[in-house]
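Lab channel / #folding
Pinned by the channel admin:
"Please post every new chain as: sequence first, then the structure tokens as a reply. Keep commentary short and put observations after the output so the thread stays searchable."

First post following the new format, from NK:
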Amino acid sequence: MTATLCCIIASILVYKIVGKNALNKQIKLNKQTLPEFIFYTQDLKSYNTSHINKNKALCIFYYNAECDHCQYEAKQLKKHINAFKDVQILMVSTNKPTETQLFAKSYGLNSSKFITWIYDKDFNFYKWFGNAVAPSVYIYNNKQHLVKEYNGEVKIEAILSQLNNDKKN
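Reply from TO:
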């Protein structure tokens, strides 16, 4: 009886692990081109892939307003903001709009016209981009191909270097 129960439990665990690995592989493959996603603007209007300018590079910053590393990246982004003027930036977070507005204002990023503040109110980011830590950055070229992904804190200079390298290619 005990051996049968152990076999059943082991089979269930193996099944779940294999299924999870298959899902992770599919997400990794899907995000190689900008996935079809649906998030929300700060006033809770739908925001999806069709809103992206197809002729510009795109940087997706996944952040949390309370994260020290995210706050550091926000300071660095503000410091180098002019270098991003030809890039679309999506700042995606599960923070409520009031928290996001405070974050954007605190770091002087609320008036940049090329930054769009996105609310992941349904916690769906992982469905399209995989399990991401805050902060994470996804850089897509103007053909919507993923050129670089950073998980964890990254220097803004590295992001700019990647964007500049992609322009040359």
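NK: Residues 31-168 form a domain with the Glutaredoxin fold (CATH 3.40.30.10).
TO: also worth noting, The chain has a mean pLDDT of 86.
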